[in-house]
Prior knowledge:
Blueprint: H1 3-26, H2 29-45, H3 47-54, H4 60-74, H5 78-89, H6 96-111, E1 113-120, H7 126-140, E2 143-150, E3 158-162, E4 165-168, H8 171-185
Parallel strand pairs: 1-2
Antiparallel strand pairs: 1-3, 3-4
Amino acid sequence: xSEPASISxxxxxxYATAMFELAKEDGQLAAVEADADALDAALTDSADFGDMVxxxxxxxxxxxxxxxxxxxxxxxxxxxxxxxxxxxAKRRLFVLPQLITALRAKIADEKGEVxxxxxxxxxxxxxxxxRLAETLKAKIGKDIKIKATVDESxxxxxxxxxxxxxxDTSVAAKLANLQNAMKEVG
Length: 186
């Protein structure tokens, strides 16, 4: 990990720990988890929000005003809104994506859940997602929260990442393995 990435994750981890502890004290873990999901969706859906978070061209005041308005518009909890305002005041909004990841991990750990990153060639149905979660729960022994993404380059199959484990059943991976085997023969 590069030094700037390490520094960013350290900053994000401190903010996530503070938010998690305060939310836990006040019984607001569910609200903060919903806020993290909403902010993640906003970062994904709005290029302007992502630019404002990452760009050093915006002043502290502009960032504070923007996140305050956004928090009010999105109906975020006061804890999340205040944290965003503090991050803007300290010029730390650039770590928001890492903060969301760290906060989700802490909440999942508290709930006894494990997040599984699932990449598929086509969007999974609710029934497929539920069946996959049940299968993974039987293997791992913890509740599974599926974070699904679509990557059409897989052609078919799934890539499942749970913690340090990865299962790649995609057609693209099988074709790559076959191509490598053919190179060795010829």
